[in-house]
Specification:
With 119 residues, the protein is mainly α. The protein has four helices and no strands.
Protein backbone atom coordinates (compact mmCIF):
# COMPACT_ATOMS: atom_id res chain seq x y z
CA UNK A 1 0.00 0.00 0.00
CA UNK A 2 1.33 3.44 -0.88
CA UNK A 3 1.05 6.09 1.82
CA UNK A 4 1.23 9.74 0.84
CA UNK A 5 2.49 12.35 3.24
CA UNK A 6 -0.18 14.61 4.66
CA UNK A 7 -3.04 12.56 3.25
CA UNK A 8 -4.78 9.91 5.35
CA UNK A 9 -6.38 6.68 4.28
CA UNK A 10 -9.48 8.54 3.10
CA UNK A 11 -7.77 10.67 0.48
CA UNK A 12 -7.57 14.41 0.19
CA UNK A 13 -10.44 16.06 2.11
CA UNK A 14 -10.50 18.92 -0.39
CA UNK A 15 -11.87 16.57 -3.05
CA UNK A 16 -14.64 15.44 -0.71
CA UNK A 17 -15.49 19.06 0.17
CA UNK A 18 -15.72 19.90 -3.54
CA UNK A 19 -17.93 16.87 -4.23
CA UNK A 20 -20.26 17.77 -1.36
CA UNK A 21 -20.45 21.42 -2.46
CA UNK A 22 -21.28 20.44 -6.05
CA UNK A 23 -23.84 17.84 -4.99
CA UNK A 24 -25.47 20.32 -2.60
CA UNK A 25 -25.85 22.99 -5.27
CA UNK A 26 -27.06 20.56 -7.94
CA UNK A 27 -29.19 18.08 -6.02
CA UNK A 28 -30.70 19.82 -3.03
CA UNK A 29 -32.76 22.72 -4.50
CA UNK A 30 -34.98 20.61 -6.78
CA UNK A 31 -36.42 18.17 -4.23
CA UNK A 32 -36.87 20.93 -1.65
CA UNK A 33 -38.79 22.99 -4.21
CA UNK A 34 -40.91 19.98 -5.20
CA UNK A 35 -41.75 19.23 -1.57
CA UNK A 36 -42.66 22.91 -1.12
CA UNK A 37 -45.23 22.57 -3.92
CA UNK A 38 -43.43 23.69 -7.09
CA UNK A 39 -43.27 21.35 -10.07
CA UNK A 40 -40.70 21.77 -12.86
CA UNK A 41 -42.34 22.48 -16.24
CA UNK A 42 -40.88 19.38 -17.90
CA UNK A 43 -42.38 17.11 -15.21
CA UNK A 44 -45.91 18.51 -15.03
CA UNK A 45 -47.35 15.58 -16.98
CA UNK A 46 -46.06 13.17 -14.34
CA UNK A 47 -47.54 14.71 -11.20
CA UNK A 48 -48.55 11.52 -9.40
CA UNK A 49 -45.14 10.44 -8.15
CA UNK A 50 -43.43 13.80 -7.69
CA UNK A 51 -43.14 13.67 -3.90
CA UNK A 52 -41.74 10.14 -4.03
CA UNK A 53 -39.15 11.29 -6.58
CA UNK A 54 -38.18 14.19 -4.34
CA UNK A 55 -37.69 11.88 -1.37
CA UNK A 56 -35.61 9.53 -3.55
CA UNK A 57 -33.31 12.39 -4.57
CA UNK A 58 -32.97 13.37 -0.92
CA UNK A 59 -31.96 9.76 -0.15
CA UNK A 60 -29.23 9.99 -2.79
CA UNK A 61 -28.07 13.26 -1.26
CA UNK A 62 -28.03 11.62 2.19
CA UNK A 63 -25.91 8.84 0.67
CA UNK A 64 -23.37 11.44 -0.42
CA UNK A 65 -23.33 13.03 3.02
CA UNK A 66 -22.99 9.72 4.86
CA UNK A 67 -20.09 8.69 2.63
CA UNK A 68 -18.37 12.07 2.45
CA UNK A 69 -18.39 13.43 5.99
CA UNK A 70 -16.44 10.57 7.65
CA UNK A 71 -13.82 10.80 4.92
CA UNK A 72 -13.50 14.57 5.40
CA UNK A 73 -13.08 14.00 9.15
CA UNK A 74 -10.43 11.32 8.39
CA UNK A 75 -12.39 8.81 10.46
CA UNK A 76 -11.01 5.33 11.15
CA UNK A 77 -11.55 2.54 8.63
CA UNK A 78 -14.33 0.89 10.67
CA UNK A 79 -16.32 4.12 10.87
CA UNK A 80 -15.96 4.77 7.14
CA UNK A 81 -17.12 1.23 6.37
CA UNK A 82 -20.08 1.50 8.76
CA UNK A 83 -21.15 4.77 7.15
CA UNK A 84 -20.75 3.23 3.70
CA UNK A 85 -23.08 0.42 4.79
CA UNK A 86 -25.64 2.98 5.92
CA UNK A 87 -25.16 4.65 2.55
CA UNK A 88 -26.14 1.40 0.83
CA UNK A 89 -29.39 1.53 2.78
CA UNK A 90 -30.04 5.03 1.44
CA UNK A 91 -29.29 3.82 -2.08
CA UNK A 92 -31.76 0.94 -1.70
CA UNK A 93 -34.40 3.31 -0.30
CA UNK A 94 -33.88 5.66 -3.26
CA UNK A 95 -34.29 2.79 -5.72
CA UNK A 96 -37.52 1.67 -4.04
CA UNK A 97 -38.87 5.23 -4.01
CA UNK A 98 -38.06 5.72 -7.72
CA UNK A 99 -39.83 2.45 -8.56
CA UNK A 100 -42.86 3.42 -6.47
CA UNK A 101 -43.03 6.82 -8.20
CA UNK A 102 -42.92 5.17 -11.63
CA UNK A 103 -45.67 2.78 -10.59
CA UNK A 104 -47.79 5.62 -9.23
CA UNK A 105 -47.33 7.57 -12.49
CA UNK A 106 -48.24 4.50 -14.52
CA UNK A 107 -51.39 3.88 -12.50
CA UNK A 108 -52.43 7.53 -12.83
CA UNK A 109 -51.88 7.44 -16.60
CA UNK A 110 -53.88 4.27 -17.20
CA UNK A 111 -56.77 5.22 -14.92
CA UNK A 112 -57.53 8.40 -16.83
CA UNK A 113 -60.21 10.89 -15.85
CA UNK A 114 -63.27 9.51 -14.11
CA UNK A 115 -66.56 10.28 -15.86
CA UNK A 116 -69.43 11.48 -13.67
CA UNK A 117 -72.16 8.93 -13.05
CA UNK A 118 -75.68 9.71 -14.14
CA UNK A 119 -78.71 8.61 -12.36
Amino acid sequence: MIAYEGVGMNGNPLYHWIALAVSTTLMLPMPVAILAGWTPPWMRKRQAGMRLRAYAILCIYALMLVNGIPRIADAPFETVMACSSVGLGFAAAAAVLFLLSARKDSNARTAGPVAPREG
